[in-house]
Amino acid sequence: MRVTEGGIDLEVPGEQTEGVEESVFYNPRQELNRDLTIATLRTFREREERAESYLDAMTASGVRGIRAAADGWDVTCCDLEADAVDLARENLERNDLADEARVEHRNVNALMHDEMFDVIDLDPYGTPMPFADAAFARCRDLLCVTATDTAPLCGAHFNSGVRSYSAVPQNTDYHPEMGVRILVSALARSGARFDVGVEPILTHATSHYVRTYLELDRKASAADAALEHLGHIYHCEDCLYRETEHGQVADPLESCPHCGGNRLLTAGPVWLGPVQDTEFVAAVRSAIPDAFGTAEKARELCETLEAEVDEPTHYDQHKLCKNWGLPANAMDEFLDDLREAGYAASPAHYGGTTFKTDASVGEIRAATEGSLE
Ligand SMILES: C[S@@+](CC[C@H](N)C(=O)[O-])C[C@H]1O[C@@H](n2cnc3c(N)ncnc32)[C@H](O)[C@@H]1O
Ligand SMILES: [Zn+2]
User: Fold this and answer.
1) Tell me, what's the pLDDT at 18?
2) Biggest alpha carbon distance in the chain?
3) Whose CA is nearest to atom 17 of ligand 1?
């Protein structure tokens, strides 16, 4: 089957079923992820001119590495599967880029221990954590990470989440953001073991995966500074009240300060710091060309990320209203009520009914319920 993406022609095994390409080595649903990757790499290189080498650590069809090579990066593609390696080589040749990139048939953990790269991109099936140590040991500037195991990350598959991320995730009404905060926390702690500090400059949770871009600072003091963003979330399952506390040691609440209930969850360590550099995200948005297949969607996503209130958990308006036994109103009106009451409020990218605010659950109700009857 022939596929064109980002100006690159690919031949991938598989067939089109009902207009959707199905292939083990090429997932069309990740095109937005790849479009944003290329725009992020461009933006990052403008800022860090010395960034040249890019490792597409799990290349499959080669699509990501080939798109980066077409953009002038010094690319290494790697895959464990011989069929993927052959396919990536064929696809490089098909685009006359065979001299711009090499393809390694190896376990990428071994490759990363052998060589340093300016940018490393981890895009495995499931959790990226088995690759995090080698990546932090050998990545100079930017680590790009996809995690597709959203059920463990958000606490729905609790034991698996605890095992993979050495943290306690909890299944809450803000589950995609729980995934973001657990993933970045685990990565920050992996980096710290190598005296590397992380700063997330772009992060999104989109249809069954979390993607984050971490700018690295290879200094023990930077690792210490990153760890200061870790802490815990205390969450009430009855009224959806939540509060956060920085620090390595949890000091859970005994009862909910809002409703007095005692069905309380503690999640952590989670990353409580910012997950975007909003100026960087705006620059990424401007670097998305019209020719990209997901240009409109990717720009919209960046715009939402830029405007998101910097709070560690989002709310879901429908779940809140259901909990209060009140009908939900239009999101614009709801957010306007919050702003008029003096709170910061914005839509969130986690779904059409999600929003962020610095108001507590009680303050949200007081500010909005007049418009909900
Ligand atoms: C989700 S796919 C990668 C998709 C690709 N990056 C893209 O954007 O289309 C995961 C790939 O990782 C490869 N893989 C799994 N374990 C690996 C390892 N230890 N070293 C290198 N490649 C590995 C698999 O063979 C598979 O091709
Ligand atoms: Zn409560």
Assistant:
1) 61
2) 66
3) 80
* pLDDT at residue number 316: 97
Which class is domain 2-307?
alpha beta
pLDDT at 100 over 70: yes
Confidence of residue 263 (pLDDT cuts 50, 70, 90): very high
192 CB under 6 A from ligand 1? Answer: no
Where are the alpha helices (H) located in 194-344, listed in sequence order? Answer: 220-227, 278-286, 295-307, 317-324, 331-340
Residue nearest to ligand 1 atom 22, measured at CA? 79
349 lines ligand 1 (CB under 6 A): no
Planar angle of CA 43, 219, 287, nearest 5 degrees: 5
- Binding site membership of 58 for ligand 1 (Cβ less than 6 Å): yes
Ligand 1: residue of 3, 79, 211 to mutate (most ligand atoms within 8 A of CB) is 79
The ligand placed nearest to the CA atom of residue 253 is 2
Q: Which two tokens stand for residue 221?
A: 């003091």
Neighbours of ion ligand 2 (CB under 5 A): 236, 238-239, 241, 256, 258-259, 261
Q: What is the pLDDT of residue 21?
A: 61
Q: How confident is the model at residue 73 (pLDDT cuts 50, 70, 90)?
A: very high
Between vectors from CA 113 to CA 112 and to CA 116, what angle results, nearest 5°? 60
Q: Which atom of ligand 1 is nearest to the CA of 124?
A: 10
The C-alpha atoms of residue 198 and residue 208 are separated, in whole angstroms, by 24
Please state the domain extents for the chain: 2-307, 315-371
- CATH number for 315-371 (one of 3.30.56.70, 3.30.110.30, 3.40.30.10, 3.40.91.80): it is 3.30.56.70
Q: What is the mean pLDDT of residues 253-268?
A: 96
pLDDT of residue 373: 75
